[in-house]
Specification:
single chain; 57 residues; mainly alpha; 88% helix; elongated
Length: 57
């Protein structure tokens, strides 16, 4: 199992990759899908950060 910091880093990297994929496509539907993936990964990364701060408190 990953440490929480590893989880957050994973989700941040996947967000970065999804945004790069969105930027590289000319198809509006594919662009939108990749942006939705990126937003979901960003939410997951924030959730991990929140969880980390709650555990540390």
């Amino acid at each position: 199992m990953f440490a929480r910091n590893d989880d957050q880093n994973y989700f941040l990297e996947r967000e970065r990759q999804a945004r790069a994929m969105a930027a590289s496509t000319t198809d509006p539907a594919v662009h939108s899908i990749h942006l939705r993936f990126a937003e979901a990964y960003a939410r997951r990364a924030r959730a991990e950060a929140t969880r980390d701060s709650q555990v540390a408190a």
